[in-house]
Amino acid sequence: MPICGVRVERSSGRKKRVKIASMDELIFLKLGGSLITDKTRPFTARLEKLADLAAQIADARRANPGLRLVLGHGSGSFGHTVAREYATRQGVSNSLRRYWQGFSKVWYQASALNRLVMDALQTAGEDTLTFSPVSAVIARQGKIAHWNLAPLQRALASGMLPVVHGDVVLMKFWVAPFSPLKICSPIWREFCARSVFCWPGWSAASGPTTPPARGW
User: Fold this and answer.
1) Strand 26-31 and strand 143-147: pairing?
2) Is residue 6 reached through a cis peptide bond, with omega within 30 degrees of 0 on the bond before it?
3) Cα–Cα dist 162/16, whole Å
4) Percent residues over pLDDT 70 in the chain
5) What is the pLDDT of the chain when averaged over all its residues?
6) Domain map of the chain by residue range?
């Protein structure tokens, strides 16, 4: 599954190549949760797949010094499993305490998967930084209202690989889980980034598109 230039997997085994117009443009590369975790087994990462993807990303960046990437990844069988258990998408139903427990546990599992992704990237020789949405994003009515992207922009300018991921975020009056597809919208607007999505059974796409259901 060569990342650059760019080829993505399909579950049928067929592949589709997508050209990158310029190595100086910014690419938002999104690794779907179904690609990097086993959705049939809670809290199970595809470690060999992660290692392979990380190695390809590192090789692509070494071969193309002008290639600028922001990497995003889903939460897969980590965040989804706990989100379903605590029904965090439905808001508070009976117990406020249980809702906040669910919020904390979704964050914990999303962060656990992110650490595995970062381990793979570090092992591949990448200089990476995670920009966790929960620490910087404020949302309103299900959309991002504020996110200071200056630190992420500084990391890009320094040649590092910024990583964002599916996470929970605080809203003005409540909280909610957010997918990388929602998270990356300000990146598209701020940096005019091109996007490449990697999912099993889904082809690459350029620009904001409609994702498969429950893709975060």
Assistant:
1) unpaired
2) yes
3) 26
4) 66
5) 75
6) 7-198
pLDDT digits (tens, 9 = 90+) for 105-150: 989 999 999 999 999 999 999 999 999 988 888 877 777 788 888 8
Q: Is the dihedral of CA 103, 210, 129, 118 positive or negative?
A: positive
How many other CB atoms are there within 10 angstroms of residue 176's CB atom? 16
> Can you read off the two tokens belonging to residue 203?
């082809």
Architecture field, domain 7-198: 3-Layer(aba) Sandwich (3.40)
Cβ 5 vs Cβ 20: under 8 Å: yes
CA dist list (Å): 122 to 101, 118, 214: 31, 6, 28
Structure tokens at 4: 């650059």
Q: Kindly state the tokens that stand for 74.
A: 């889903």
State whether residue 98 is helix, strand or coil.
helix
| 197, two tokens | 């999505």
Phi and psi at 138, nearest 5°, equal -115, 130
- Are the CB atoms for 29 and 198 separated by under 8 Å? yes
Digit-coded pLDDT (tens) for 22-68 = 446 788 888 989 899 998 999 999 999 999 999 999 999 999 988 88
- Model's pTM, two decimal places? 0.75
